[in-house]
Structures are given as C-alpha cells and as structure tokens.
Amino acid sequence: MRADAARNLAGVLRAGARLLADDPSTPLAAIASAAGVDRTTVHRRFATREALLSAVFEAKLDSSGRVLDEARLTEAPVAVALHRYVEGIVPVSREWPVDTRRMMRADPSADSRARAQSARLDAFVRRAVDEGFLRGDPAWARAVLDQLISTAAYRFPDLTPPQAADLVVETLRRGLGG
C-alpha cells in the first residue's frame, strides 16, 4: 500500500472510530469528510458502514493485542505488568472508542480474537490474586479494572497514560478507603 493510501486508511479508521462511537448511524460521507478524504475513497475501501466498523474493531483488537504482548502479563512482576497494561490500553481506548460488545456479536472472527484477549487478561488478574497483589474474587477485580480504565480514558482525558496508570493501579491496589 502506498504511503498516502495507508495514511488515508488510518485517518478513515480513526475518524470512523470516533464518529461511530458517538453515533453508530453516521454516514460514510460524514466519516470521509472528518478524515479529510473524498467520499469515493471511503466507499472504494468499505462498501458499508458495517464493513468500516468491522475494520475499526480489527484495528482496536490489533492495538489491544500489542498492549497485552508488551505488558508481559505472564513474565513480568504483577505490579509492573499491570502498570504497563494500563499505560498502554488507555491510549488504545481513547483512539478506538467504539463499543466492542456490539461488534463482537456481529463478527465471529473478531469475537474469537476479543475473547482470547479477554482470557489473557482474566488469567493475569487471577495471577494477581493468587500472588496476593489483589484480594478477593478475580472476576470482581477484573470488572473493577475495566471500569477504572474506562473512567481514566474517557472521563479524565487530560490524564497522561502514565498518570492514568498510576491512578488506576493505586486505586485498584488500595481502594479509596482512608
């Protein structure tokens, strides 16, 4: 793919993620305009809004997979891996703000990838509980982790990824008690 075509595709995917997260019925023409490309450029690559949404979801899965790999969830000490994961996933969440649950139901391949990624994170949280870094039910800890990341990514957009990771890890580890 030519460099300009790759740049255009990346712009379309990012604009699509942002606009479709706000309104899943956003027309492709509006996405093209937001990406700074001609409508035919988008239509040539994506026949439907659903095809674009699927490509956005795949891009989000690719980014999430890289974060999981770079966090070294099975090799690094739990505290280090958790901080790396949060620091990496906050920008991914901000860049690709689409609701993955809806897409997972519509795309079996993406659903399989998403479930595999989720299982990796579940195993890591179980490890954190088994090693005493976290206490309680791993399913509860995972749900709280997901919500803390979402809160840091979307409700506090001025937090840098390292600041968000510090805050999420500290809150998950120690809670809000006095």
Shape: elongated
Would you tell me the structural class of the helices and strands?
A: mainly alpha
Classify the beta-strand content into a percent band. under 5%
What percent of residues adopt helix (DSSP H or I)?
over 70%
Q: Termini separation (Å)?
A: 55 Å
Tally of extended strands? 0
Number of helices: 9
Low-confidence blocks of residues: none
Q: Largest beta sheet, briefly?
A: none
> What order do the helices and strands follow?
HHHHHHHHH
What is the C-alpha radius of gyration, as a whole number of Å? 18 Å
On the 0-100 scale, what is the average pLDDT? 91
Describe what this molecule looks like in 3D.
By secondary structure, the chain is mostly helical. It is 78% helix and 0% strand. It has nine helices and no strands. The protein has helices at 3-22, 28-35, 39-45, 49-71, 78-95, 100-106, 108-130, 138-155, 161-174. The mean pLDDT is 91.
Give a brief description.
The chain has 178 residues and is mainly alpha-helical. It has helices at residues 3-22, 28-35, 39-45, 49-71, 78-95, 100-106, 108-130, 138-155, 161-174. The mean pLDDT is 91.
